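Practice problem: Lipoprotein
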Amino acid sequence: MRKVSVKVISGMALLLALAACGGTSDEGEPQVAAIPGAVTPSGASSAGTAGSDGENVRQLPLGATKEEVQRAYDAYYACWTQHGVPSAPDDGGPLASWKGDPKKYQPAVDACADKQPLDAPELDPRQNPNYVDDLREEKDCMESRGYKMEIRGSGSEAELWGISSKANLEKLNSDQGSQDYRECEIAAFTQK
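Answer key — structure tokens:
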């Protein structure tokens, strides 16, 4: 799945930036999902997890809403809790507990790998041969709406970042920023 830096901090990006995946990065941190997602651990199933209403809450659609993202991560973190990862007392939730002692809680996180939310296939560079071009189109769309963006990395490692200035990040974090991000993501990554 596509990684977008925590620097792209629209409302949805912030929600996803707080969501850890089952694997770890080179720095030993959990892979972090952000809008629209994180790298899926190899071998992860693409099958969804049904919610209480029978809806697939694991596979996120292209341009997922904050509510869809929150529902998917609520189910994922509930699994962590069921497998022994406590919610941190400072309201950091299970992710904060995991970060406090990753070795202790990694087995619980691994047990929930089949519930880890998945981004839309269009956002996965392994499934979308036009990924980098689509990412550039998304960047152009966001910039045409007044956001300062950049692409870091190349190929399947390319990520969209919001430029770290107070004004730009506030604009990205706004409700309008979330809406613009969704619209640009859908426009850029929809098959032409």
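Discussion: The longest helix spans residues 66-82. Students who identified this feature from the tokens alone can consider the problem solved.
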